[in-house]
Design goal:
With 633 residues, the protein is of the alpha+beta class. Strands 17-16-19-20-22 form a five-stranded antiparallel beta sheet. The longest helix is centred in the C-terminal third of the chain and has 46 residues, at 515-560. It is elongated and about 115 Å long.
Length: 633
């Protein structure tokens, strides 16, 4: 599944600032299950995600301040009839009309001195074209440029963007074709600071063809963990504000024990001004029922609505407490589940107003645990969260390499193939050069020995004195021997490209490696290898130009100056002309021949998959699942 989410939140206060006398919040929420051109299977829960965000934010603002654009399927309509009445089609025209309507109201509020917050939420398919991400509406693409213009035209005090999609990173950090494939957190923050200084972003950074839905959640995995955190489960310090740092830690720890990395959301969080202590969401004004939990041992719980739908999950660490905000309109009929060693237990909430203490619930009864494909993801929320867990995670991050974003499993596989090709090509060249050098060395040893060994001490057919001829004979033989030795070393010494490929495969064979980090490091090493080759080529060209100049000067001097013997002049002319021809050929080739590393870098940067990535889908079925792969290859 490919779900895309954009969430824009504005703060009522700056950290350490004064509280304004008036605050207003608005939200535009879009959910679209369909893919443009029907290139990929329809999603199942993008409309559910949109509706659930509308319910969650409905406890923070008047219903009239929320615009919902989504085509709800029959099941979602039956589950959420009130939201179904308000929903409009997720088309470009409706998006533009909603933005015009909300922008006008925001300006009116600002004229009255209000500090305005604006939420933009999108759930659905996303894609990337020539490095620029876009979100798919029912009748067209909502591009990275469209999102940037939306944030700039909406006169909110601050904006915060959350994207839940594959390729979401390219929606807020477009990549130029031929440029560096990945970006670090620092790269992204600097880019955002230049373009959108008052905007914070919170992304799931998968660059895969799919972001996965889970039927047990009736939601995308990332969307469910984010909503659970925003409902209060991520409020580690219980100050009523969900900061970027808190939500980032909550989402990461919630999925930490999920073994398959494809199911684990990778988060990029950057608060306004680059400060992750800033609040992404304020809970103080929420019109909701509070469910208090924790205070003793660790507490893991699931809250379900009246229809059995999973509303949120939390795992509170020992000694910590949490206040979960449950929308008042949904509390009637809600239940709480807790796993124990004896099984799962469920209790109905006894109140639809005020505060409910989890420990006060007395109607616990055994609850049958669902089985099936969802067991693959039972590890979700298995790690307790709280202030100690968050502090430990932040310390852990300081000891780890800086994360990189925008690299997919397809990129990883492609890099492995390219490195294998590079190693094969360089191995062939290395063995070919070594064989040619060894043959030339042997010929020089034999041929030079025979040539300069003609005659004897009394008869000099070359016109050279015997000691000179003998010295030349040994010199040529030594030169040939050096060539043989050098070729032997060349046969066993790996090239830089071969060593790089071998190191890549060794890292893959080791445990605990990060594919994105490995690809990023390898790309940097390829660039370094390319620079080394270019530097070596420039040095080689300088040497050749010098040798050609000296050789040319020697040939001219040989013709102008008188020598002791005609054969001596002829020998110099022959050797000098041959050397000049070889040097000119090598120089010509050095300007036009590309190295293996240059070819690999060019192929890597010209990757056509950045225009249309292959699509992989995993759909849980009773007793198993279905895997589909489609796209342009």
């Amino acid at each position: 599944m490919l779900a895309s989410l954009a969430l824009t939140v504005a703060l009522a206060t700056a950290v350490g600032g004064e509280r304004p006398s008036l605050a207003q919040t608005y939200a535009l929420i879009i959910g679209n299950n369909q893919s443009l051109g029907l290139r990929r299977p329809s999603l199942q829960y993008a409309d559910d995600d949109a509706v659930k965000y509308a319910e969650l934010l409905g406890s923070l603002m008047p219903a009239r301040n929320i615009v919902l654009l989504s085509e709800l399927d029959r099941d979602t309509e039956r589950l959420h009839p009130q939201q179904a009445k308000r929903a409009r089609q997720p088309t470009r025209a409706n998006v533009e009309a909603a933005l015009d309507e909300l922008a006008a109201r925001v300006r009116e509020d600002q004229e009255q001195g209000a500090r305005v917050s604006f939420y933009f939420i999108f759930a659905g398919h996303g894609d990337v074209d020539e490095g620029r991400g876009f979100l798919e509406l029912k009748d067209g693409a909502f591009t990275a440029d469209d999102l940037e213009r939306t944030l700039q035209r909406m006169p909110a005090a601050q904006s915060h963007v959350i994207l839940d999609s594959c390729n979401s990173f390219f929606v807020i950090n477009p990549r130029k074709p031929g440029g560096k494939r990945f970006a670090t957190a620092k790269d992204a923050m600097e880019s955002l600071a230049r373009r959108l200084p008052t905007v914070g972003v919170f992304l799931s950074t998968s660059a895969e063809a799919e972001v996965y839905e889970w039927s047990e959640l009736q939601s995308g995995i990332f969307s469910h963990t984010v909503r659970s955190g925003l409902a209060g489960a991520a409020d580690a310090n219980r100050d009523g504000h969900i900061s970027y740092a808190e939500l980032s830690g909550f989402v990461e720890l919630a999925a930490r024990e999920v073994r398959n990395p494809l199911f684990r959301p990778r988060v990029f969080a950057r608060g306004p001004g680059g400060d992750n202590r800033r609040a992404l969401l304020e809970l103080g004004s929420a019109q909701a029922v509070l469910l208090e939990a924790g205070g003793g041992g660790p507490v893991r719980l699931t809250v379900r609505d009246a229809d059995g739908g999973r509303w949120l999950d939390a795992n509170v660490e020992a000694g910590s407490t949490v206040s979960l905000r449950l929308p008042t309109a949904l509390v009637q009929g809600m239940s709480v589940e807790q796993p124990t060693e004896q099984g799962e237990w469920r209790a109905n909430l006894a109140s639809d107003s005020g505060t409910v203490d989890l420990a006060s619930l007395s109607s616990w009864r055994a609850s049958e645990r669902a089985r099936g494909p969802g067991d693959l993801l039972r590890a979700l929320f298995s790690t307790p969260f709280g202030p100690r867990a968050l502090a430990a995670l932040e310390r852990e991050r300081t000891t780890q390499p800086e994360p990189v974003y925008g690299i997919s499993q397809e990129d990883f596989s492609r890099m492995s193939l390219l490195l294998g090709s590079l190693a094969d090509i360089e191995r062939g060249k290395r063995m070919g050069r070594a064989g040619a050098t060894m043959g030339a060395g042997i010929l020089v040893m034999v041929g030079g020995g025979l040539f300069f060994g003609q005659g004897n001490q009394d008869a000099d057919s070359l016109g050279l004195a015997y000691p000179t001829r003998q010295a030349l004979q040994w010199g040529v033989a030594g030169l040939g021997l050096a060539g043989v030795v050098a070729s032997s070393i060349g046969m066993i010494r790996l090239s830089e490209g071969e060593r790089l490929s071998r190191h890549f495969q060794q890292q893959v064979s080791s445990s605990g490696y990060d594919p994105a980090q490995l690809v990023a490091r390898t790309e940097s090493q390829l660039q370094l290898l390319l620079e080394q080759e270019r530097s070596g080529r420039r040095t080689f060209q300088t040497i050749l130009w010098t040798a050609i100049g000296l050789n040319t000067a020697g040939l001219i001097a040989n013709e102008l100056l008188e020598t002791g013997h005609p054969n001596n002049k002829a020998s110099i002319r022959y050797v000098g002309t041959s050397t000049l021809t070889i040097g000119a050929g090598l120089l010509f080739a050095s300007y036009f021949e590309k190295s293996s590393a240059e070819h690999v870098i060019r192929i890597w940067q010209d990757d056509p998959s950045i225009k249309r990535l292959p699509r992989m889908s995993i759909h849980p079925l009773d007793g198993g699942g279905m895997l589909s792969l489609r796209g342009e290859f």
